[in-house]
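Quick sanity check, Adenine phosphoribosyltransferase:
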Amino acid sequence: MSAHDDLKSLIRTIPDFPKPGIQFRDITTLLLDPKGFAQTVERMAAATRGTVDLVAGIEARGFIFAAALAVPLKAGVLLIRKDGKLPGATIAEDYALEYGQDRIAIHEDALVPGARVLLVDDLIATGGTARAAVRLIRKAGGMVEQAQFLVDLPDLGGADALRKEDIAVDALLSFPGH
């Protein structure tokens, strides 16, 4: 029995979504449970190393965890958005998708150089978006040395890819497969 089995039991698995062979890990059922969501935030906050200035959330579900974690960590929230969603001057980073490219962005003035940033998202799979977010934060002058996720899909290698970039990676839960 794992230390976080209580949270794992709150996540619904939907087979064959969005395509056959994929086991979709639906966190909305955990978010609907007030105690489960509160425990998730408390445990993620407890896993944070040192002081952080900003909690960066990747659009869209990462925003939920970034905002909730920022409160107990006494940090600001940095929104990492899909390109074209932010008003004003931005900096952006491209990354590869299974079939093509995508781009994420932050405001040019979103952080001061040297800001300590905790990267947060709901799930890490291949790590493409998270790795692009790390590059983006570093391009803006931020220091990102740790990332937290509710769910890791270790068979897809994303957490290991982040670790190769000197990021300490924590996930409360792990599910096998895709």
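Posting the structure with no commentary besides this: Helices lie at 5-8, 28-31, 34-46, 61-73, 128-139, 158-163.
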